[in-house]
Amino acid sequence: MVDVILGLQWGDEGKGKIVDFFAKNYDLIARFQGGPNAGHTLYVNNQKVVLHQIPSGIFHPDKINLIGNGVVLDAITLKKECEAVAALGGDYKTNLYISERTHLILPTHRALDKASELSKGIEKIGSTLKGIGPAYMDKTGRNGLRVGDLLDKNFTTQYIKLRMKHQRLLDNFNFQEDISQWEEEFFDALEFLRGFKIVNGEYFINEKIAQGNKVLAEGAQGSMLDVDFGTFPFVTSSSTVSAGVCSGLGIAPQKIKEVIGITKAYCTRVGSGPFPTELTDATGDFLRNAGNEFGSTTGRPRRCGWIDLVALRFACMINGVSQIVMTKADILDGLEELKACTSYKINGEAQQTVPFQMHRMNIDAIYESCAGWNTDISTVSNYETMPEKMKLYIGFINTYLGVPVKFISNGPGRDQIVSV
Ligand code: GDP
Ligand code: IMO
Ligand code: MG
């Protein structure tokens, strides 16, 4: 049996915290897509840790964690991350496995990411520049190198061939960067990676499922950044939606039970691209400051706005979301009035669907207002004692989405979560 946790917005919904919270109910936690563009924040013994590639179950001593084939892996980042995890007591040596089919991010992928963004000028995606797009391009272009290839004696020859190809592309971009330092670190990190538990991920996970183990699949990014269904071209390069769980881990759709969608009580986006409910006023600044909305991976300020129910309902449909966890509800504590976008006005017409080529449209968000609860909820541990006005806000969202909010997160701490 497999349950899924994924983001319903443009990323940073709090997936890391929620996976860490739910991990106790599972035996195996597996990342199925994305790479070090992700930044999943957890608190372990009150210390903050940001995971980029390691699944967020790693701090549970009795749980297995798997980096699935759908991930693109940066060995340099992995090595640093493992050191950080070990310093906080996480046992990556025993509990972390990597699929042999996982593609590697090379230093030249990172350079290509930069070159590509520079060439786009004002139309740039706002990529995290971690080499994600170029690495997935080499996967679908059938050129990439995989973790399992490391054990092959031809690895270095293959690497040099691919590097030469990348150099020609970089020359075409007229982009120059000295990557010798990265390359040195890269080869050093590959040695580290060779010492890992490299497994055939699809047999590994299916055998575990057959033995009755419970699997939690952890998504990265968010549904609106999905390469097919997001705000293309301002998206990432992987399938961030529940369909990506099957191809990113090698499990059949019938094995998936709950799809747990995470949304903030408001909305954020980092990087370029459409964001109909964005607030560029004092309320937007309030959300950024109160919510500490600065990227976990790049430190960039996140764009902030009201919750977008049109986009959320779309995300629930694409993913088959069966329950919702709402995070950062406490950030709304200081507001007198809350708004929720219930339709988009495009060319004078109101619609409740997400359009194609959102970035080429003028979209006016149409809102319904709710009264804010204006009370500190960060220490509330029982839904019954939550403010009535919050229950109305949640009820409104449940009705619009047709999917129940089952948990409300009211602080970054491990225990700050309330069952509805
Ligand atoms: P992820 O990428 O989806 O895992 O989310 P990030 O870790 O990038 O960003 C979420 C941020 O919000 C982190 O700094 C979390 O510590 C924090 N966070 C998560 N849930 C809550 C919550 O309910 N309340 C508050 N105040 N912070 C939260
Ligand atoms: P988590 O897992 C928020 C955004 C980037 C950029 C676009 C493409 O922490 O939620 P890429 O590096 O993939 O080429 O960037 O996607 N992006 C994210 N935004 N959270 C993330 O991950 C993101 N990963 C990528 O800002 O707009
Ligand atoms: Mg994040």
Q: Can you describe this structure?
A:
- The chain is α/β, with parallel strands linked by helices and 420 residues long.
- The chain is built from twelve helices and 20 strands.
- The strands form five sheets. The protein has a ten-stranded mixed sheet with strand order 9-7-5-2-10-1-11-15-19-20, sandwiched between helices. Strands 14, 16, 17 and 18 form a four-stranded mixed sheet that branches. It has a two-stranded antiparallel sheet with strand order 3-4.
- Helix 2 (75-87) crosses helix 7, helix 4 packs across helix 5 and helix 4 runs parallel beside helix 6.
- The radius of gyration is 21 Å and the shape is globular.
- The protein starts with a strand and ends with a strand.
- The structure holds guanosine-5'-diphosphate, 6-O-phosphoryl inosine monophosphate and magnesium ion (MG).
- Guanosine-5'-diphosphate binds next to helix 1 and strand 3.
- The site of guanosine-5'-diphosphate has 20 residues, from helix 1 and strand 3.
